[in-house]
């Protein structure tokens, strides 16, 4: 299912973008020795997005740009 940020209220849009940024940051700073912890953290971000949107999977767009898939 496609989700367009502009269709969401401001708080929900902020919450979703925050979780996406936290996920992206974790991918950038992932440490090989603690990879499992980072992967767990990243999965928590995805679960948070699912809970906020009440969807199991989807693609999130900002304008016409795909910014995240879950």
Molecular structure report:
This protein has 70 residues and is α+β, with helices and mostly antiparallel strands. The model has no long low-confidence stretch (mean pLDDT 95). It has helices spanning 10-29, 35-53; strands at 2-4, 59-62, 65-69. It has a 3-stranded mixed sheet, with no helix packed on it. The protein is elongated and about 40 Å long. Helix 1 (10-29) packs antiparallel against helix 2.
Keywords:
alpha+beta, 70 residues, elongated, 2 helices
Bulk shape: elongated
Tell me how many strands there are: 3
Poorly predicted ranges (pLDDT <50, ≥5 residues)? none
Number of helices: 2
Average predicted confidence as pLDDT:
95
Q: Quick one: biggest sheet?
A: 3 strands, mixed
Q: Can you summarize this structure?
A:
This protein is α+β, with helices and mostly antiparallel strands. It contains two helices and three strands, in the order E-H-H-E-E. 56% of the residues lie in helices and 17% in strands.
Topology of helices and strands:
Blueprint: E1 2-4, H1 10-29, H2 35-53, E2 59-62, E3 65-69
Parallel strand pairs: 1-2
Antiparallel strand pairs: 2-3
Helix pairs in contact: 1-2
């Amino acid at each position: 299912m496609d989700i367009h940020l502009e269709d969401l209220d401001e708080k929900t849009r902020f919450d979703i973008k925050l979780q996406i940024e936290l996920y992206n940051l974790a991918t950038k700073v992932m440490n090989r020795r603690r990879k499992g912890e980072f992967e767990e953290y990243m999965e928590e971000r995805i679960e948070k997005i699912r809970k906020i949107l009440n969807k199991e999977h989807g693609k999130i767009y900002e304008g016409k740009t795909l910014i995240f898939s879950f």
